[in-house]
Write a structure and sequence with these properties.
single chain, alpha+beta, four-stranded antiparallel sheet, globular, 77 residues
Amino acid sequence: MKILNIVNPERFFIQLQKCKGDIFLLTSEGDKLNLRSKLCQYIAMSKLFGDAEIDEIELSFTDPGDVNMLLEYLVRG
């Protein structure tokens, strides 16, 4: 799932913490970072969040319910 224009990364990551399954950040280099890992969260935040916004992020989910929950968050805010 590609997500564009995240204007509040901190709130977005709080929402990701509510997911039940694993969440993988797919990097442009082909790496998969498991965002359940605190170390990977730190790496992702330091690389992606140098700016106040995220232009584009690609995520993969192991629990389909998490996709629906995140889509609802993105639509309703």
